[in-house]
């Protein structure tokens, strides 16, 4: 559900474009979107909730996918999932030679657009998986031969064979003076408040997938906070105050 904060101009424009796409379906056609990030998916859900003629499925290749496709179809039709495949990319070399940004850049360099690429999952020090629409998988497998300075081997694999890493998160308990964004990030990532303020104002923090540049932004139970390069926090519970007025909270930290 859309948060109470106002939509940005870009978000309003995105919703208008999405509504226009739905209008072209005429009530009897199916639409599969490009990959949507979590915020776009949230905006799409708001639009679709007004459209009783349509049903939809969300799929990104595995249950915890961050980037997903929407398959939109007439409500009376049988449910279907978007067609996705995975490309396993392997290389030889030292740990850390190929990172997420390197791999994404290499995939875009062979001709794909950002919204044609789903999650990129690092599965080991010398292997990663790129999730894409089925139509792009064979092309990537044939053309992705180099990432940075590393020679790579790319092979299409079945989604059922995804070697997914397990990240149950790390529990963090503590107290904060308030539920301000900077205070919660400081606790969750063990950073000084002054450094956190600079990071937030630098534009690398998102709350529920929306960019937030105010250290004073107030969080609530259930909010997700991502800090680029550090990971993600989930504010799992707010548990009352200490005698000195500090607030007990519990977080989950994901790498």
Explained architecture:
The structure is a single chain. This protein is an alpha+beta fold and 255 residues long. The protein has three domains: 9-74, 2-Layer Sandwich (Ribosomal Protein S8, Chain: A, domain 1), CATH 3.30.1370; 84-161, Alpha-Beta Plaits, CATH 3.30.70.330; 170-254, Structural Genomics Hypothetical 15.5 Kd Protein In mrcA-pckA Intergenic Region, Chain A. The protein has helices at 9-23, 38-48, 100-109, 134-143, 181-189, 193-201; strands at residues 31-32, 54-59, 69-74, 84-91, 117-124, 127-133, 146-147, 150-157, 170-176, 205-207, 210-211, 224-227, 231-241, 247-254. It has a six-stranded antiparallel β-sheet with strand order 9-14-13-12-10-11. Strands 5-6-4-8-7 form a five-stranded antiparallel β-sheet. A three-stranded antiparallel β-sheet has the order 1-3-2, with no helix packed on it. Helix 1 crosses helix 2. It is globular. It starts with 8 loop residues before the first helix and ends with a strand. The mean pLDDT is 89.
């Amino acid at each position: 559900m859309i948060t109470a904060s106002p939509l940005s101009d870009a978000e309003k424009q995105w919703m208008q474009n999405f509504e226009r796409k739905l209008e072209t379906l005429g009530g009897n056609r199916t639409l599969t979107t490009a990959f949507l990030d979590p915020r776009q998916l949230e905006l799409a859900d708001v639009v679709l909730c007004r459209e009783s003629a349509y049903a939809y499925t969300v799929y990104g290749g595995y249950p915890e996918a961050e980037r997903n496709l929407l398959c939109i179809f007439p409500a009376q039709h049988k449910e279907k999932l978007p067609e996705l495949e995975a490309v396993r990319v392997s290389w030889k070399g030292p740990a850390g030679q190929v990172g997420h940004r390197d791999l994404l850049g290499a995939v875009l360099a062979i001709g794909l657009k950002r919204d044609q690429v789903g999650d990129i999952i690092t599965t080991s020090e010398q292997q990663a998986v790129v999730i894409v629409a089925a139509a792009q998988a064979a092309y990537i497998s044939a053309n992705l031969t180099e990432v940075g300075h590393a020679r790579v081997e790319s092979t299409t694999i079945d989604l059922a064979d995804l070697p997914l890493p397990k990240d149950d998160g790390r529990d963090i308990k503590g107290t904060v003076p308030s539920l301000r964004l900077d205070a919660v990030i400081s606790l969750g990532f063990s950073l000084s408040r002054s450094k956190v303020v600079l990071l937030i104002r630098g534009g690398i923090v998102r709350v529920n997938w929306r960019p937030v540049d105010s250290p004073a932004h107030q969080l609530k139970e259930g909010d997700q906070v991502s800090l680029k390069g550090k990971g993600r926090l989930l504010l799992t519970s707010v548990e009352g105050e200490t005698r000195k007025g500090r607030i007990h909270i519990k977080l989950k930290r994901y790498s």
